[in-house]
Amino acid sequence: MKFARRAFIVVWKDLLIEGRSKETLNALFFFSLLLIFLFQFALGPDHERLAAALPGLLWLGFILSALLGLGRTFVLERDNDCWDGLRLAPGDKSAIYLGKLAGNLLLMLVVEITLLGLFATLFNVDVGRALPALALVIGLGTIGLAAVGTLFAAMTAHLRARELLFPVLLLPIQVPVLLATVKATEAALLGEPLGSVAHWLKLLAAADVIYVAIGVLTFDFILEG
Amino acid sequence: MTRVLGWLAGLGLLAGLVMGFGVAPRELTQGNVQRIMYLHVPSILTAYLAFAIVLVASVGYLLSRKPALDRWAAGSAEIGTIFTAITLLSGSIWGKPTWGTWWTWDARLTSTAVMFVTYVGYLLLRGMIEEPERRARFSAVVGILGAVNMPLVHFSVLWWRTLHQPPTMLTPRPASMSPIFGVTLAVNWVAYTLLFAYLLAKRLRVSRVEEPAL
Q1: Predicted ipTM of the assembly
Q2: pTM of the prediction?
Q3: B128 in contact with A at a CB cutoff of 8 Å?
């Protein structure tokens, strides 16, 4: 079987299960709504203050959702010996990593679009003009987030303090991505041309390439269990 | 061999103290507080050395699966984390009288702090896995990713903000300070590197002895 097809089968399997159970998405939608409440309560009703903090809050929301959503990547495989099923799958194991990564990207993008919509409506911010630039920043940032998240989710799936260790490992690695995306989002929301944050976008692209490459190269060692 | 290293490290540290407090003069603008540099700079250089060893040993482990390489990575990470903590603490003590604040989110402070939490995460991961072979594999992956991530951290926080002194020693123009400061720093650097080698040798021995018991 071709590499791409094997990766696709993993995505399809996860999408099918999620489509039928909807357990991750439903909870994450509700979690996003709660986050908006939290941010609003924490910062008070002052619209100016909310708007100024928006880029940071947006990515804080994405990261918090990612900690919950990505951490569950391999929860399905822990039951019924499915982990061994993955290990026994023929061919290069990095196809499984890329499949899981693609699934996580889809999941994160759906959650991020929801959060962005909630922010725009409930905080009354106009994001319409900035959408193309925002799409680029969110896309680049999410790849970096999901690439490391998928790898660490596989690693922590077997461990005792899984829910604790996942953020403790993921957050320090994500510092460059968080800094770059917040700065670039700020520029995008202010309507500045993307050229003014080109160095941040290049950093994000470099981070994406490095993280995905390390994921592909090392996933085999983690899948051993 | 280890004992010789220990004596050398002890003598080096003693020489470093004598140089730092006795021989090196009081710095003109900062006063005695400048002497923290003889602790601060060698500590961070030792930490960099330690984390470089973690990276090389981690790659080596994944390629060869030799348990000895995992012990090298683990020992270096532990000692490197302690030296990073010493750097952060001594920098903080120096920063209060000099900059007027214990902590500021300056680029180099931030990237050092990020490095610290990265390797604390690495050590936490090691602590959570009992099975030695799995622990070695997983922590090797984190050890590699953490080290490869450091250039990204460096540039991102550099662009984010910067306030730290520009490096005085490693600039191409003629040094702006008396050579005695440099000599004192070098003596301390050698002493700290010897101390690191001694601690690592001890740590390797302890983990070698521990292994069969598991």
Answers
A1: 0.91
A2: 0.90
A3: yes
Contact assignment for A173 to B118 by CB distance below 8 Å? yes
CA-based nearest residue to A107, from A201, A217, A175, A26? A26
A168, B145: Cβ pair inside 8 Å?
A: no
> Within 10 Å of residue A196's Cβ, how many Cβ atoms?
12
Residue B159 has pLDDT above 90, yes or no: no
Domain that holds residue A110: 3-223
Are the beta carbons of A97 and A224 closer than 8 angstroms? no
Q: How confident is the model at residue B170 (pLDDT cuts 50, 70, 90)?
A: low
Partners of residue B65 in chain A, C-beta under 8 Å: none
Question: Would you call B141 and A165 a contact, using CB atoms and an 8 Å cutoff?
Answer: no
B16 touches chain A (CB under 8 A): no
A155/B138 touch (CB, cutoff 8 Å), yes or no:
yes
Can you spell out the DSSP letters for A38-105? HHHHHH-S-HHHHHHHHHHHHHHHHHHHHHHHHHTTTHHHHSTTHHHHHHHSSS-THHHHHHHHHHHH
Number of domains in chain A: 1
Q: Is the Cβ–Cβ distance between B40 and B87 less than 8 Å?
A: yes
Q: Locate the chain B residue with the closest alpha carbon to A218.
A: B141
Q: How confident is the model at residue B213 (pLDDT cuts 50, 70, 90)?
A: low
Kindly identify which residue of chain B lies nearest to residue A155, measuring between CA atoms: B138
Q: How far out from the chain centre does Cα A78 lie?
A: 21
Which chain B residue has its CA at the smallest distance from A214's CA? B145
Percent of chain A with pLDDT over 90: 58
Report the SS3 class of residue A173. helix
Phi-psi region of A80 (alpha: psi -120 to 50; beta: other; left: phi over 0): left
Which residues from chain B sit within 8 angstroms of residue A158, using beta carbons? 134
Taking the C-alpha atoms of residue A59 and residue B79, their distance in angstroms, rounded to an integer, is 34
pLDDT score, position A129: 84
Asked whether residue A134 carries a pLDDT value surpassing 80, the answer given is: yes
* A44 confidence band (pLDDT: 50, 70, 90): confident
